[in-house]
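Researcher: Here's a chain I'd like modeled. Treat it as a single chain, no partners, no ligands.
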Amino acid sequence: MDGPFPGGGAGDGPFACEKPALHGGSALNAPASIALRIVAMVKHALEVAVIRSTTGRRSLPRSVIPAVALLLTLSSCSTGKDAVVHGSTFEFVSPGGQTNIFYSIDQRRKIADLSGPSVVAPDRTISIGDYAGKVVLLNLWGAWCGPCRTETHVLREISTAGKREGLEVLGIDVRDNRQYAADFIRDFQVDYESIFDPSGRIALQLRGLPLAAVPISLIVDKRQRVAAVYIGAVLQEDVRPKLEQVRAEP
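Model: Modeled as a single isolated chain. Structure tokens:
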């Protein structure tokens, strides 16, 4: 039976493991492999249910975020302590249920080619590729999200200062109504661009991120690789030191 995403069943969605993880050169034992597949299917179903919801307008309670991160860890294809990213494109895994993760240069993977229409100018396409050569704070948000409101002033301050420092802020507005999102941008005097992603499918290219835990922020380095992930609203003291560290890199 086909799953909710074209071309596959429940185990073939964006978060399904492509092949059994290898540990020490051998495949996982059968019970562990089956367990991982079951957890991956449950996580995939949860993501789809959240995206398809038209009535839920609340972000995930902060008390549940560690549990979501732990679920992501259990469902990943690699389960060792060093299971941070794998493959050529970034995929989020949370070792030990961490919600703030910084990746060393050798751990970083290129971010997916994210692009879509502007929230305020539907005829204009915005792409993460437009920001190559700059350090970007990529923020997943929604006008329906309470914590997103409280962190907006932080992002605005970073954006304003960043224009002088070679830093940029880029938003992805997920599971939202365009008019609500445009009103949010106007009311909070947001001075950076946002991609409009009402279905959440653009954000789903950031494999493994728990969209139910919006707001989520990522630091993307000058070479378009993910350098850090923050699950939940950020503060200046959370991101400023890491932004400066990544900006200083050659």
